[in-house]
Each structure stands twice: as structure tokens, then as C-alpha cells.
Amino acid sequence: MTLTCTLRAGTKKRVHILIEPPLRGYEDVKPRLLEMKAIAQEKLGMIKAPVITSFRLPSEALFSGILTGALFYLYLSPQDGNSPLYEPARFANDALGPNAVTYALYSLGVIHVLESFYTFKLCRRHKTGLLTGAAYVLSTIPFGFPIWKDLRKRIQAARIDSVMKVE
Question: Are 128 and 154 members of one domain?
Fold first, then answer.
């Protein structure tokens, strides 16, 4: 991709950017270019940052929630329980070792808490409001990256919409 800009002195500068893998056409880069334009306009004060006013739980969070729930099941199941409901947990504990599930749960907890800090930063930047922001931050703790990934997609869509309204 070749970009040309006109400097204040009136001279033109060309910059060639190599994109790997090559894109098929403008439609492949249009959303990102519009978002970049919106970010630049936000920084210059030409438009306001998009405001997210509602919470949406993405469908991808279901899979993440099931995995987190399974990890909690393995962690909380007693190893000496007589119920057949605890048999999968005993099998996993024997196969993985006594501390593997504990380390995995603690690691997942640390990662999800760090992700919730990132989600908090996104919510603050885009003025979600107290309840919507709390819903996003608190849902990031059990569900992880699907929450903030969906929030970023919504922000990108809102930015593109705001640029399209300006033009």
C-alpha cells in the first residue's frame, strides 16, 4: 500500500507499507482505515470518542464460561468423595497430578483479573457509565477475553458509524 501526504511546506511525501498477507482489495482494509481515521479525529478533537451505553454478553463467552466452570469443578471436588459425580475430578487429579489444577486455576484467575483491568480501562475511555462498566469488568473475571474482545468490536463499529455520519 502506498500512502501520500502533503506536508506544510507543500511537498509531498510517499510512504510504502508492506501488508502481509496481501489484501484482496479496499473492502478488506476499509473497517480498519475508517477506525484509524476516527481515532485520529478523536485525538484532534474533531469528533468525540464513542460511548457504549449497553452491555452485551457475547456467545463466545459460553465456551469460556464452561471451561472456567469445569476448572472450578475440578478444583472444588473432594478427592475422597464417594459420589459418582466426583469420579471425573478424581480421574483428572490422578492424571494431571495433585497441584496442576490448583496452578491452572490460580493462573486463570490472575490472567482474568488482569484482563478485567484492561476492560476497566476501555470502559473508562469510552464512558460506559457505572452499571454498564461494572457489568463488563465483572463479567471479564469469569469469562475472560471474549468480553473485552466483543467490547472492542463494538467500539470499532461505533467509531466507524461516527465517521460515516460526519461524512
Answer: yes
